[in-house]
From TrEMBL:
<keyword id="KW-0677">Repeat</keyword>
<keyword id="KW-0346">Stress response</keyword>
<keyword id="KW-0378">Hydrolase</keyword>
<feature type="binding site">
    <location>
        <position position="131"/>
    </location>
    <ligand>
        <name>substrate</name>
    </ligand>
</feature>
<dbReference type="Pfam" id="PF00595">
    <property type="entry name" value="PDZ"/>
</dbReference>
<protein>
    <recommendedName>
        <fullName>Probable periplasmic serine endoprotease DegP-like</fullName>
        <ecNumber>3.4.21.107</ecNumber>
    </recommendedName>
</protein>
<dbReference type="InterPro" id="IPR011782">
    <property type="entry name" value="Pept_S1C_Do"/>
</dbReference>
<comment type="function">
    <text>Might be efficient in the degradation of transiently denatured and unfolded proteins which accumulate in the periplasm following stress conditions.</text>
</comment>
<dbReference type="GO" id="GO:0042597">
    <property type="term" value="C:periplasmic space"/>
</dbReference>
<feature type="signal peptide">
    <location>
        <begin position="1"/>
        <end position="22"/>
    </location>
</feature>
<dbReference type="InterPro" id="IPR001478">
    <property type="entry name" value="PDZ"/>
</dbReference>
<keyword id="KW-0720">Serine protease</keyword>
<keyword id="KW-0645">Protease</keyword>
<feature type="binding site">
    <location>
        <position position="101"/>
    </location>
    <ligand>
        <name>substrate</name>
    </ligand>
</feature>
<feature type="active site" description="Charge relay system">
    <location>
        <position position="207"/>
    </location>
</feature>
<dbReference type="InterPro" id="IPR009003">
    <property type="entry name" value="Peptidase_S1_PA"/>
</dbReference>
<dbReference type="GO" id="GO:0006508">
    <property type="term" value="P:proteolysis"/>
</dbReference>
Length: 465
């Protein structure tokens, strides 16, 4: 009898414990059912032609005419390169948010809805630094998703992702927030996104899809995974909604993103530096360099200062400073708190506009080309002085916009490239560019030299008038 009672109480205890555990897990079916119709699948096609072979122009004069035709570059039509990603609708009139890397370089962008309707999408604007893009389809009365407050997220909170991993439409996965404010530099070693880290299963194809809180609000945009296999290992990173909302609003309003700029080189503070600088613990961003004439220099910030607060926000590590400064509107006056030689100081700084964006956005006033697209399908302008100094380039014209399917796009040019030669003529400025462009022949392969991130590159270009 005692044994039977013991077994009864053991079973009862397990049922109670199991029920409590079940109550602790979130119910996700309604969230997924209600929000899936506003999540879209994005397919892109890149139809770039590539010229292969050939001899650099500087050596062509040494080749006898009888052999020259054998060494001319042969143009090979490549198969279109297709890729896919995810996105989500943010307004009933068809505005969609996704990642920049999902649509970057695409000649065609197609959006598929949950009801299997497909629409060609127009790219409204892209932002390389945050890896965000805004696109639009010409449809009305669409379901859309509400933005949430990513600042209110806490580590351990449940979150849900919906997207198209490996092309599997509208897959849902769930997990928890693992960390907040992760600093992950991009390819240009810039760091303007305080990523949300989660253990949600994110795989290729999820890029650009929404990350939901349990209220069904978007708190992040899935952007990156850390992997050695190509698949999920439980480390995924999302762009916070607080940053994304501002970027998207600017892209919709003006097609570019303005960011704050101090003009300092920074590093982290270790324990020894903290002790030497009179800090109780290693916090803040140590100023290693101040650019001449930059907002930091104008405000009196010096090398060796440790910035501990910017506009009232704590700077715990050096990676926090770009996040905060980048989201500050250019022209704003803010208070900077710092430590200098063991003493605390407060300075007023007028935040500048971040110059020299790799993706071609311009934060300074420049006179654009009157040749909108033109024969090459390129919108170009004079190069701002800040960009010349950054890439150590003396002359050329800056590519601001590339029209898909036109000669410039087929040659592989991107926004932010600096054209220095067209055909066999040097291009020093806009006047040269307009003059040379008028004289270029059609249906003939021509050399083009340009700089990308300061590195010179030769390719070929063909105008199809």
């Amino acid at each position: 009898m005692v044994k039977r009672c013991t077994q009864y109480f053991l079973i009862l205890s397990l049922l109670i414990a199991g029920s409590a555990y079940a109550r602790g897990l979130p119910e996700l079916t309604d969230l997924i059912e209600q929000n899936s119709p506003a999540v879209v699948k994005i397919n892109t096609v890149d139809r770039n032609d590539v010229a292969q072979g050939g001899v650099p122009p500087q050596y062509q004069q040494d080749i006898p005419d009888i052999f020259r035709h054998l060494l001319e570059p042969r143009r090979r039509q490549q198969r279109p390169v297709a890729s896919m990603g995810s996105g989500f609708i943010i307004s009933a009139d068809g505005y969609i948010v996704t990642n920049n890397h999902v649509v970057d370089g695409a000649d065609e962008v197609t959006v598929t809805l949950t009801d299997r309707r497909e629409f060609e999408a127009k790219v409204i604007g892209t932002d390389l630094r945050s890896d965000l893009a805004l696109i639009k389809i010409d449809v009305k009365d669409l379901p859309f998703i509400r933005w949430g407050d990513s600042e209110a997220l806490k580590v351990g909170e449940w979150v849900v992702a919906i997207g198209s991993p490996f092309g599997l439409d509208y897959s849902a996965s769930a997990g928890i927030v693992s960390a907040m404010g992760r600093s992950i530099p991009n390819e240009s070693r810039e760091n303007y996104v305080p990523f949300i880290q989660t253990d949600v299963a994110i795989n290729p194809g999820n890029s650009g899809g929404p990350l939901f809180n349990l209220e069904g609000e978007v708190v992040g945009i899935n952007s990156q995974i850390y992997t050695r296999s190509g698949g999920s290992i439980g480390l995924s990173f999302a762009i916070p909604a607080s940053l994304a909302r501002d970027v998207v609003a600017q892209l919709k309003d003006k097609g570019r993103v303005d960011r704050g700029w101090l003009g300092v080189g920074i590093q982290d503070v270790d324990r020894n530096l903290a002790e030497a600088m009179g800090l109780g613990k290693p916090v803040g961003a140590l100023v290693a360099q101040v650019e001449a004439g930059a907002p930091a220099a104008e405000a009196g910030i010096m090398a060796g200062d440790i910035i501990t607060r910017f506009d009232g926000q704590k700077i715990m590590t050096h990676g926090d400073l770009p996040h905060v400064v980048g989201q500050t509107r250019p022209g704003s006056e803010v208070t900077v708190e710092l430590m200098r030689k063991g003493n605390s100081k407060r300075l007023q700084v007028k935040v500048g506009a971040l110059p020299g964006l790799d993706d071609g956005e311009q934060q300074v006033s420049v006179k654009p080309s009157t040749d909108v697209g033109g024969r090459l399908g390129l919108v170009v302008s004079e190069i701002p002085e800040a960009l010349k100094q950054r890439w150590n380039v003396d002359s050329g014209v800056l590519v601001k916009q590339v029209t898909p399917g036109k000669a410039g796009a087929k040659a592989g040019l991107r926004s932010g490239d600096i054209i220095a030669q067209l055909g066999f003529d040097e291009v020093a400025n806009m006047k040269d560019y307009d003059r040379v462009l008028k004289g270029l022949p059609s249906d003939e392969l021509l050399p083009i030299r340009f700089f990308r991130s300061g590195q010179p590159t030769f390719r070929t270009i063909q105008i199809d008038d």
